[in-house]
Amino acid sequence: MSKEFFEAVKMLEAEKGIPADYLYEKISNAIVVAAKHDYNGKDIVHCDIDPEKQKIKVYVRKNVVEEIEDPDTDLTLEQAQLIRKSAKVGKTIDIPLKTKNFGRIVAQTAKHVIRQGIREAERGKMYMEFQSKNQELLSAKVVNIDPVSGNVTLEIGKNEALLPKAEQVPGEVFNVGDTTKIFVVDVKETTKGPRVMISRTHPGLVRRLFETEVPEIFDGTIEIKSVSREAGSRTKIAVYSKDEDVDPVGACIGPRGQRVSNIVDALGGEKIDIVKYSENPEEFVAAALAPSDVCEVEILDEGAKSCRATVPDGQLSLAIGNKGQNVRLAAKLTGWKIDIKPESGFYEG
After folding, report:
1. What angle do CA 124, 125, 130 make, to 5 degrees?
2. Are 275 and 269 a contacting pair, CB within 8 Å?
3. In 3D, which of 121, 165, 164, 157 has the Cα closest to residue 136?
4. I need a labelling partner for 92 at 20 to 30 A (CA). Which of 1, 122, 239, 267 fits?
5. How many CB atoms lie within 10 A of CB 59?
6. E strands, the chain, where?
7. At what angle do helices 203-213 and 258-266 cross, to 10 degrees?
8. For residue 97, what are the β-bridge partners?
């Protein structure tokens, strides 16, 4: 095995980021698998790779016996002493094999196993890389858009991942070369390699954007209690401050509304309602129905978590929202079923 072989492994390590030791182990196994064919698959072939001395030693370890039972694994004392004079019955002897004598089939087998090993290593590396970014917000570059399915291929670091049409914000348009923010929903190991599920519609995207923009959330002073979202249209986020002197809603809005404005821009103009969380369900439900005012919230069934919110007559449609969106998001945010009632008791016809 020449110097070029070791240089090629070093190059693979540099280019693919796969540890040389891992490759040497795979290559060693490949050579052993290939060479074993000449010994009916018996486990007597060994391969030692020494990158420092740039040497590969392949040998067969046989038993020195008085009488041969298996010609693949046994040698007589006379045969053994022709190779090493000090050989003794009951001991083993290592017989070096010349790698160039393995033949074309052996070389092809080794090459195939090495390629497979490199693929596995790349998959493993990709899995570890994405696993460390699971549930995180990442920047990604658009490299391809499928005109038929609408799926977008994104470049994330040295890897690529697919953003399905279903995980894209309705109405958003991508162009090759664009940079976008995505949320890593989950990473799973499959037989075809790691499967990375990414999304632009997941509530986790909004949660991470707030953590990025609001230092008080990042340092733990303010806690995001819940997020409900209808991507591309509206999001409600409930926040709570552990410090009485810090206003959670004000901190999230930021000076001159800059913090929330940055998040709205990143979401392509999606409306965001920032709600103050309360352990008191009446207060929490009333706050969650913003931007409408709420006169009163009455708990109907605590076990079933159902309540009725009374709102001024003129704000009934605002509280319910377009196609019921506002009350639907408020219910999702609070975990309560919310019935809306006008103050006069008369519903608009």
Report:
1. 100
2. no
3. 157
4. 1
5. 16
6. 45-50, 55-65, 74-76, 92-97, 137-145, 152-156, 159-163, 179-190, 193-199, 222-230, 234-241, 271-276, 296-301, 306-311, 337-342
7. 140
8. 58
Return the SS3 of 150. Answer: coil
Copy the structure tokens of residue 86. Answer: 């000090």
| Biggest CA pair distance of the chain | 111
* Distinct helix (H) and strand (E) counts, the chain: 11, 15
For residues 323-346, average pLDDT: 94
Grade residue 252 by pLDDT with cuts at 50, 70 and 90: very high
Q: Of 271, 295, 269, which Cα lies nearest the Cα of 282? A: 295
- Is the peptide bond preceding residue 291 cis, with omega within 30 degrees of 0? yes
| Average pLDDT over every residue of 55-64 | 90
Pairing relationship of beta strands 337-342 and 137-145 according to DSSP bridges: unpaired
Pair 26, 49: CB distance under 8 Å: no
Q: For residue 166, give both structure tokens.
A: 């279903």
Asked whether the predicted pLDDT for residue 109 surpasses 70, the reply is no
Q: Looking at residue 110, what is its pLDDT? A: 65
Residue in 213, 225, 197, 252 with CA at minimum distance from that of residue 332:
225
Nearest to 319 by CA among 341, 346, 298, 297: 341
- In angstroms, the CA 272 to CA 270 distance is 6
309 and 284 Cβ atoms separated by less than 8 Å: no
Tell me the DSSP string of 218-234: HTTSEEEEEEEEETTTE
pTM beyond cutoff 0.85 = no
Mean pLDDT value of segment 307-326: 95
End-to-end CA distance of the chain: 88
pLDDT value of position 118 = 76
Helices (H), 144-242: 203-213, 215-218
- The span from the CA of 330 to the CA of 309, in Å, is 11
Which residue in this structure is represented by tokens 């790691």? Answer: 194
